[in-house]
Design brief:
Elements: E1 5-6, H1 9-31, E2 36-42, H2 46-61, E3 65-71, H3 77-89, E4 95-98, H4 108-114, H5 126-133, H6 147-160, E5 167-171, H7 178-187, E6 191-195, H8 202-206, E7 211-214, E8 232-235, E9 239-242, E10 248-251, H9 256-262, E11 265-266, H10 274-292
Parallel strand pairs: 1-11, 2-3, 2-4, 5-6, 5-7, 7-8, 8-11
Antiparallel strand pairs: 9-10
The chain binds guanine.
The site of guanine has 8 residues, from strand 4 and helix 6.
């Protein structure tokens, strides 16, 4: 059995960003509309700061306007809601991203519900979650879909073509990743199983998968002998673990070296799903700006 082909998320994300950059240029030229992304970060969590900075930077690189709002830890829920109301009303803003997690004194669901669903480029608003839940097989994704799940789905379609009839197992039932990944696979005509921490005999369930998507946030949890030979494995996990000489390293939710001996296709960590998240955020922002400019939906 040959080694798995690695799915190069960096290369795919870079190509997607190029297409988005061209779409931004075309939109400015044809309609005079410059897509705008507002990012909101409450508090000074270092990891969140890195993410938010990379989002603002990516937007600027693609010719979008980027509006960065940094609020102190002690910001009240009312103040945050007021900022969002302003961004909802601002015609230069086509996408709003409130970085999660929010400080404990702020109700995340209340904040996410306050974002205009048509500017919800994270796809976290209940309206957009509902749109994905109600989508017919093969229907266009003409509304914002959560970025990491959208990235997983784009990678799978790129390497496999049609997913129709395949058995897909999604490990993890989170609202941010597992469930939307499952919905996207269902839309692509897969037979979908969502497995989770209470699933009986998880290895056997995983072994039924032609497509195995793992998003549980447990380092190196899924072993090579859980994988059906030739399966496409999407590892959404990004876990930092101790390594030799007091250093740390990033690993996924799957034991990479074991999976590589069995799978047909495999996303590495880092360099697999990770780069797709920001690229899909840019994609969603362009799509919402195009919609606002009155253009019909088209894949980019
Ligand atoms: N925190 C971790 N991932 C994400 C994401 O995709 N969007 C937002 N808003 N916050 C996050």
């Amino acid at each position: 059995m040959s080694e798995a082909r690695l799915i190069d998320g960096r290369a795919f994300a870079s190509a997607l960003r190029m297409r988005v950059g061209k779409g931004v240029g075309d939109l400015v030229a044809s309609k005079g509309v410059k897509p705008g992304l507002a990012t909101v970060l409450v508090g000074g969590d270092p990891a969140s700061e890195v993410y938010v900075r990379s989002k603002g930077k990516a937007a600027a690189e693609l010719g979008m306007a980027s509006f960065d709002h940094r609020l102190p830890d002690e910001t009240t829920e009312a103040e945050l809601l007021q900022l969002i109301a302003g961004l909802n009303a601002d015609a230069d803003v086509h996408g709003i991203l409130v970085q999660l997690p929010l400080p404990g004194h702020i109700q995340t669901q209340k904040v996410l519900r306050a974002i205009d669903p048509d500017k919800d480029v994270d796809g976290f608003h209940p309206i957009n979650v509902g749109r994905l839940g109600m989508i017919a097989a093969g229907a266009p994704l003409d509304f914002p879909v959560a970025c990491t799940p959208l990235g997983c789905s784009m990678l799978l379609t790129d390497v496999l073509g049609s997913l129709s009839g395949m058995n897909a197992v999604v490990v993890g039932r989170s609202t941010l990743v597992g469930r939307p990944v499952a919905q996207l696979l269902l839309r692509a005509d897969c037979t979908v199983t969502i497995a989770h921490s209470r699933t009986r005999d998880l290895p056997s369930v995983c072994r039924t998968a032609d497509i195995l998507a793992v998003a549980i946030g447990r380092p190196e949890f899924v072993r090579g002998d859980w994988i059906k030979p030739g399966a496409a494995v999407i590892d959404v996990g990004i876990n930092r673990i101790p390594a030799a000489a007091g250093k740390t390293r990033l690993v996924g939710d799957v034991v990479f070296e074991e999976a590589r001996q069995v799978a047909g296709h495999l996303t590495p960590v880092p360099g697999g799903v990770g780069p797709m998240t920001v690229a899909c955020l840019m994609y969603n922002t362009l799509q919402q700006a195009r919609r606002e400019a009155g253009l019909p939906f088209a894949e980019i």
